[in-house]
Amino acid sequence: MNRLLDPATLLSIKDLSLAARTTIEGFMAGLHKSNIRGEGIEFSQYRSYQPGDDLRQLDWKLFARSDRYYIRESAVETSVNVRIILDASASMEHTGKAYTKTNYAAYLAASLGWLAMRQGDAAGLGILTGNGLEWMNARRDFQHLQRMVNRLENVKAAGKAYCPSDLGNHFGSSHSRELIVFISDLYEHDDELLRTLESLAVMKHEVMVLHLLADNELRFDFKGYNTLEDLETGKRVTLNSHTAGEQYNQKLATYLQEI
Predict the structure, then answer these.
(1) DSSP assignment letter at 76
(2) H-type helices in the chain, by residue range?
(3) Helix (H) or strand (E) holding 208
(4) What is the pLDDT of residues 41-86, one digit of tens each?
(5) Distance (Å, rounded) from C-alpha 208 to C-alpha 143?
(6) d(CA 183, CA 7)
(7) pLDDT at position 211
């Protein structure tokens, strides 16, 4: 099972839909079923009547048998809109092991879309490119999911990260429950991604950030290279093999703490 869920193995599957479905089938179904009790279709349990309870929920047949008042409770299922926003700026083309951050982000987004659909939630997709935001509204059907997956299969990361000024137009009111999943390496030039996250937080939806870093970035594993190039600006940095590793690790620790 560990080999099955290894990203390198799954990303070698050319069919992104199959890779995502294979992953989600390995998790528990019904993860999003609510434990909220109240009016609903599916029976959950009985409890003793308490003053103030709705008399319409009394089980009169049970009262006739037991001479006691009981409230019939049902499980109330909840659903949310899951909005997945993918950073498709050029830095996401950084290669870790056998795949880029873009490849992994697309696989992750497709998997989350499948999970949302399995739980009865609506899934939507936003792709943040250097030119703006491409958007697919949240819907609750598998044809829509397949369109999302097809778009993810064709994501081409390019340009600098971009903070769209009209981001709020793509969302409903703050009264509707929404989960926003932001997938990015958080590589930015002028806090543009953090401004985007602030815009999302102001809408009072739940925001989850999935911060992607390649293994060679975390371990500073660039053996055989003496020059690194910024994928978004083209700027090059010459490495000093004796001091670069220590300086890099210190700056990385500070950066992650700030994030």
Answers:
(1) P
(2) 7-11, 16-24, 60-66, 101-118, 142-153, 192-202, 215-219, 244-258
(3) strand 206-211
(4) 555 567 787 776 677 778 888 888 888 888 776 654 556 889 999 9
(5) 25
(6) 16
(7) 94
For 138, residues 6+ apart whose C-beta sits below 8 A from its C-beta are 81, 82, 83, 122, 123, 124, 178
pLDDT band at residue 176 using 50, 70 and 90 as cut-offs: low
What is the pTM (predicted TM-score) of this model? Answer: 0.72
Q: Sign of the C-alpha dihedral, residues 3, 8, 12, 13?
A: positive
Are 107 and 113 in contact by the 8 Å Cβ rule? The answer is: no
Give the residues across from 133 on adjacent strands. Answer: 128
Q: What is the pLDDT of residue 66?
A: 86
Structure tokens at 202: 């102001």
DSSP 8-state symbol, 154:
T
**CB-count burial class (<10 Å; 0-12, 13-18, 19+) for 7:** middle
Distance CA 9, CA 13 (A): 7
